[in-house]
Amino acid sequence: MIWIFSDYLTTAGGIETYLHALCVHLKSQDIPFRVAVCEMAPCPVVDELEAVGIPVYRQRRIPGDRWSMRQRFLTRYVTSRLNPGDWVYCVRQPRDEIYESLVDRSHKRGARVAASWMLTPDCLPVSPRYRASFNRAVAKTDAVISVSHTGAGMYERHYGYNGKVHVVPYHNLEFFPKPLPLPSGPPWRFGYLGRIDDSHKNVFALVEGCLAAFDSGLPVTLDVFGGGPDLERLQVFTAERDHGGIVTFHGAYDHRHDLDRILRPLHCVVYTSHYEGGPCFSLLEAMQAGRYVLASPVGGIPDLYEGHPEAGILLSSLGSEGIAEGIRITAEKFVKGEISIAGPRSIYDASYSMQRASAAWHRALELSEREN
């Protein structure tokens, strides 16, 4: 039995998307598994898993819980049901307060623990109070997993861990059996898909950079898809500066249903984050659709584009000037006919498809892989 474990879920995001894709794939393979999660907010993808018959134990949100009591109870619930040979697979690294307890309790039952990191270790804050415990837990983890080659070398530096780090790409559902044709242009339509949170996604610099590129004479537009804590502030900021009307806000979206209508009219996806974990789902989905990407060189993103100019380019800097320059370079590539839908899709098929992710996951957990 494999327990798919997450001690922290929100309404929607990368980890929730990963959980959903992994569980849907495991169900299609008829692999025995159960799901155990702690929700910090109602999570629609968990509802969907239950609707298709996947067994889920969920700790629902309790207002005022500041002591990780639910996470501790979740740990006890799962570990008390483990049998020798079982796996606990953490879709994100467990919280520092509970990590060592989860590993120790699992080992006492003869089970093993695998943990996949949400962020690269350089961007993951660990409380000084639990740092020693967290490092011990990493050392005792049976399969330490990075979702990118870029982050794999950080575990020794940040946790003193010198064991094997498995690189396992995110399981991601195939929304596009073949890439979408490129629309005509100019104007060249750039698009952002993600959370509107400036401290993470650097969206104000993105808007400034796109406006600067337009003001310099480039025929470009920017479509912004997503919601978040900074959406209203960004809309006001944009309205005060966007005299050409080139930025359009589309609001929240559901990637399970809306990707075709979002990506089909775009020429390029732009992703300007300050930090990330692995190659982001929005970028994997853009690759599926054959869309070129201009992205930050952070987290696991360089895995996708470093050495792969046919798929996208990395920003030289994350300020508005660097973003404007990246947009200029990309627009020139479109003018010269140097960008095709085949380039991004070929990288996706070679390294990041569901089949590639599943094969790496089975190797990390020492499972015999079934036909996909």
The total of helices stands at: 16
Uncertain spans, ≥5 residues at pLDDT below 50?
A: none
Strand composition percent:
15-25%
Cα gyration radius (Å): 21 Å
Query: In sequence order, what are the helices and strands, one letter per element?
Result: EHEHEHEHEHEHHEEHHEHEHEHEHEHHH
Give a quick account of the main beta sheet: strands, pairing sense, barrel closure. Answer: 7 strands, parallel
Q: Kindly name the structural category.
A: alpha/beta
Number of domains: 2
Write down the overall mean pLDDT. 94
**Spatial separation of the terminal alpha carbons:** 19 Å
Strand order of the largest sheet: 3-2-1-4-5-6-7
Helicity range of the residues? 25-40%
Q: Which word captures the global form?
A: globular
Describe the structure.
The protein is α/β, with parallel strands linked by helices and 372 residues long. The protein folds into two domains: 2-173 and 354-364, Rossmann fold; 188-351, Rossmann fold, CATH 3.40.50. The protein is 40% helix and 17% strand. The protein contains 16 helices and 13 strands. It has helices at 14-28, 44-51, 69-79, 99-108, 131-140, 149-152, 154-159, 198-201, 203-215, 231-239, 255-263, 281-288, 302-305, 320-335, 342-351, 354-364, and strands spanning 2-9, 33-39, 56-59, 87-90, 112-116, 143-146, 165-167, 188-193, 220-225, 247-251, 268-271, 292-295, 312-314. A seven-stranded parallel β-sheet has the order 3-2-1-4-5-6-7, sandwiched between helices. A six-stranded parallel β-sheet has the order 10-9-8-11-12-13, sandwiched between helices. Helix 1 runs parallel beside helix 2, helix 9 crosses helix 14 (320-335) and helix 12 crosses helix 15. The two termini are 19 Å apart.
